Hints:
By secondary structure, this protein is mostly beta strands. It contains 3 helices and 25 strands. A hairpin with a 5-residue loop joins strand 17 and strand 18.
Amino acid sequence: MLPESIPTVTVRGRFLAPDGQPLSGAVTFRAPAQLTFPAADVILGGPVTAQLDAQGQISATLPATDAPGMDPSGWSYTVTEQLAGIPAGRSYQLLLPAERPAVDLADIAPTDPTKPNYLAVRGDSAYEVALATGFVGTPAQWLASLVGPPGATGARGATGSKGATGAQGEQGVQGPPGRDGAPGAVQSVNGKTSAAVTLTAGDVGALDLAAGDARYVQPSGIPVTSVAGRTGAVALTAADVGALASTARGAANGVASLDGSGKVPAAQLPAVAAATLPGTWTPDDYGMRSWAYDLGADSRTPGDMPSEAGRLYLVGVPLRAAATITKAAVHVMGYDKPNSTVSAAYLGIYDKNLARIAQTANVTASIPETHNVGGQMAVFPLSASVALAAGSYYVAILIKGTGTTVPYLAATNWGASATTSGAKAADINGVHRWLQTTATNLTTLPTTLTLTGMADSQTCYWAALG
């Protein structure tokens, strides 16, 4: 939200097909450069893109083009419309003075290519200027104030003399026909008429790969003679300028729209025959983003191991793509109650530098009590979600209580003995696969840890992020 000291204008618009169905796409508003507002200590930069909603509507709140004290001043917005099914989107200039805090594109956007490509909104009237400079009164009183007293009658001038009218001359001989004119110049390009035409990606129905300044300086005296070898009213397509058409979105070898996690939506992926699907379970099959290893990858001893009360275990988990993480999970077999008790239990996330970045609340009451064969995946929500970049992270497991079976968690030995069996101490991100603290008296997750107080764990617990 912009500071209140910066005047703004809300621009709305609605785009429908001839049959009344809402269109989809976006409208981009681009200022000529970074805008500086010294009084508000703010610098604004970059375009504003408004996506059409399900009703084909857009709404964008923009700084007024006549904001006081703004640097630079005397500029206009470049508006570019990129609508699905309309390959030649419009591009035009727009002034948004603070006098009108809300405007609709249907009232001001050009529809006739012969109209000027620069739209202005009315400024102050002379009466409004008078009010701003101290005049007090109604418009009628202000108009009356403009009429002064009658002036003195001037002296009558002398009568002028009337000159004689000359005789009409004879018509001259018709001259020879002139030479043929030069070939006609281009009259317009994609609806634009000027001496030098600059097309944007939106003008030819292409995706804008360079979000730079779309303004240009118009040279004088150099008319366009041809565009892509054509003359007359030229209309270019994406293929004419070596671009992929926006209508190719989702097609084979076309353009894909990534979702919020940076992935291609399933609806835009090519169909995969069932016979080609690999027989490997992934975290997505369990509603998770990543895990330490497939729970069914190794059924050898120990299979499940009890955690040691008060010792913090770290399980390395690779996150293949950026994601917002809301939960952590372990596989719990239960514990031997009443011979053992649990007084505190926490899961958390640490980065590769062993700094804590998220944790759960105390989940003691949610841990299954009965030790059973097979167990169950126990998923615990984080106290607050966290956006993580792709990389490697630690899932922290801390359980405080009494007894030696507090509780049993899924584990694997990855070899002939209960060790990491020669696996590299750390991955390419510097994250160990399993670590544990030397201390066994912890009751909460520390804010930071150091490798000095850690050792490679001999118990390879399972953990996941979701």
